[in-house]
Amino acid sequence: MTDNSNTSSHIERAKHHASELAEQAQDTLQTEVRARAEEAQAQAAGEAAAVARAADAAASELPEGSLQAEAAQQLAQGLEQFADKVRTADLDKVLRDTSDFARRNPMLFLGGAALLGFAATRFLKATASDGNYNPAQEDDYSGDPWGGYDADSAMIGEAGRGNVPGTTRRVS
Fold first, then answer.
1. How do residues 158-172 score in pLDDT, each as one tens digit?
2. Dist. CA 101–CA 111, nearest whole Å
3. Residue 130 — φ and ψ, nearest 5°?
4. Structure pTM?
5. pLDDT tens column, 74-91
6. Higher confidence at residue 33 or residue 140?
């Protein structure tokens, strides 16, 4: 019987140790997530402020009092306010609000997340500097069966023979 009670105490100690390790891992993960979220928050605020400065600079280049200058100035002010809100936002509240919204509207949340993902990917691809850019590759149509087709030239060629799309050709 001693063997059975000894085995039980080993199992209990192992369970307790596993529980402590799980708590430590959860604490570490929460700390890391919070640090990354704070970093993203600061970066988003900085990006919004940079765009606000660019809009303000654009407004100063436009004729004073013009509709475009006023629109650019309003955009700059709105972006600066947004940057301030992002910079001072309570991260826990934002996460709670996001979580509540996701529970109430799961499909809308997933759709929005997918759209943001596509937009972010497109933005990153557009802003990535590729050192391997070769302008001669723009005319390489080997992978695109329609790449070498020029619709304007085809229309001119067809029109020259009397075969204009959308018209009927008489056969005599």
1. 444 444 454 454 554
2. 13
3. -105, 115
4. 0.45
5. 988 888 888 888 888 887
6. 33
